Amino acid sequence: LDTHIAPYVGVNGDIKGVITVLHDITEIRRLEKIRSEFVANVSHELKTPITSLKGFSETLLDGAMHDPEVTKSFLTIIHDESERLHRLITDILHLSKIEQHQIPFHPEPLDVIKVIYETVETMQEELNKKQLTITLPEEDPVIIDAEKDRLRQIILNLIANAITYTPEKGSIEIKLDDEEEKIKIHVKDSGIGIAKEDLPRIFERFYRVDKARSRNSGGTGLGLAIVKHLVESHNGAIEVDSEEGKGTEFTIILPKKQY
Ligand code: ADP
User: Rounded to whole angstroms, how far apart are CA atoms 173 and 116?
Assistant: First the structure.
């Protein structure tokens, strides 16, 4: 609490009372704390790939490059880590722009089903690689007010996670409930699931249940934080239901009209 006290002086100069102004600065402090934690997290996340880039390139320069096998495997690591670093920076910038409302929001009527089909199309290779079965909603158009790029990103991030966290030969199901004023998009997988104690935290930036697994799959820990922001920018909501070892279901609720 931030307190300001000032005397209340009468016409003849004597003090008649005291005015006390109380500001609740808990919220400001809380936001400051979140911000400084974020900066610390970003620095840490950026340092990890850079340390690895530095280490592997130094080892190559120190002589390891005379062995073509070693050179190839180290260069592969350097390449993958550079890509992860690139993704990380793109995600961080994207998130900070959305948070600061720097990106104008122009929703327009569009067919969600079409966006779902187009997005899945771009992920077919990864789905095939893991032999995952994907079930999609019927192809009849469902029109809502939304921004195409944001909607695509929401669906893409959820399917990408379903692919990452589902073992080979598993299944992914996308369903759509078309209600009077809103739609619900369900993305359900038969994957590893998320423990109850982790569920409330998965939308936090950089929160990962298993850091090593996420990192190996190229994850940045920002995907769901971005999804949540994008959904909320459409005045929607996101829910998650999961059982460890059984699978996870994310539900996106979007209003059909943006007024
Ligand atoms: P990441 O880049 O690590 O996937 P996200 O923000 O997309 O970051 O997800 C945060 C964490 O939530 C993941 O690290 C993972 O532990 C968990 N998670 C997200 N989606 C799923 C899913 N479909 N099944 C199991 N765990 C998931």
Answer: 12
Candidates 60, 91, 89; CA nearest to 74 is 60
Q: Residue 68: pLDDT band by 50, 70, 90 thresholds?
A: very high
Q: Is 8 helix (H, G, I), strand (E, B) or coil?
A: strand
- d(Cα 170, Cα 131) in Å, to the nearest integer? 7
Q: Mapping DSSP to helix (H, G, I), strand (E, B) and coil, where does residue 88 land?
A: helix
> Which residue is closest in CA terms to ligand 1's atom 13?
208
Neighbouring-strand partners of residue 251: 186, 239
Residues with CB under 6 A from ligand 1: 161-162, 164-165, 189, 191-194, 202, 207-210, 214, 219-225, 248
The span from the CA of 78 to the CA of 70, in Å, is: 12
pLDDT digits 0-9 by tens, 166-194: 999 999 999 999 999 999 999 999 999 99
